Amino acid sequence: MEGNEMQEVKIGKRVFVGNLAWRTSWQDLKDKFRECGNVVYANVMRDDDDRSKGWGIVEFETPDELVVRGIPWSYTWKELKDMFAEVAGVERADVVYGDDGRSRGYGTVRFSSPEEAQAALQAFNGRDCEGRALFVFFDKYA
């Protein structure tokens, strides 16, 4: 950027969800992520033989959702919410758990506004948290 040029930041409403169990359906995905916000679209990608590729896309009604990877395995929604509340207005935080009841190491955080979500992304992306690097993002394909 030169001088006082401002870079436009596009905040999306879609998130990538990886490491899905092979049997996960689009409805399972949608139902789980409804805990985080109003889901308007969910899809599990499939190959030519109609087998799951193990990943999918979830689209929320608003861009206020934020995906956080690399959270400590011991964190619950409460620790995740408290951590992000340091810099932004957090409405809700959720940690994703596997069928075995163990944390998958990622979750979602919903903010009061897109501006607060952007501030949290800038403050936490790449930060070390109990020996794990946080990866905080909005889906760039929204």
Q: If you had to describe this structure to a student in words, what would you say it looks like?
A:
The chain has 142 residues and is of the alpha+beta class. The chain has one domain: RRM (RNA recognition motif) domain (Alpha-Beta Plaits, 2-Layer Sandwich). Helices cover 19% and strands 35% of the residues. The protein is built from 3 helices and 9 strands. The protein has helices spanning 26-33, 77-84, 114-124, and strands at residues 14-17, 39-46, 52-60, 65-69, 90-97, 103-111, 128-129, 132-133, 135-137. Strands 5-6-4-9 form a 4-stranded antiparallel beta sheet. Strands 1-3-2 form a 3-stranded antiparallel beta sheet, with helices on one face. Strand 5 and strand 6 (103-111) form a beta hairpin. The longest helix has 11 residues, at 114-124. The chain is globular and about 45 Å long. The protein starts with 13 loop residues before the first strand and ends in a 5-residue tail after the last strand. Residues 1-11 have low confidence and may be disordered.
Give a summary of the structure in a few sentences.
The protein is of the alpha+beta class and 142 residues long.
* CATH class type: Alpha Beta
- Output the CATH topology: Alpha-Beta Plaits
What is the architecture at the second tier of CATH? 2-Layer Sandwich
How do the strands of the widest beta sheet line up side by side? 5-6-4-9
Bulk shape: globular
Q: How much helical structure, as a percent, in the residues?
A: 10-25%
Q: Output mean pLDDT.
A: 80
Q: Which parts are unreliable, with pLDDT below 50 for 5 consecutive residues or more?
A: 1-11
Rg to the nearest angstrom? 16 Å
Number of helical stretches of at least 4 residues: 3
Distance between the termini: 24 Å
- The domain tally reads 1
Kindly estimate the percentage of residues that lie in beta strands according to DSSP: 35-45%
Q: What is the tally of beta strands?
A: 9
Please provide the ordered H/E string of secondary-structure elements: EHEEEHEEHEEE
Secondary-structure-based class equals alpha+beta
CATH H-level homologous superfamily name? RRM (RNA recognition motif) domain
Largest sheet, if any?
4 strands, antiparallel
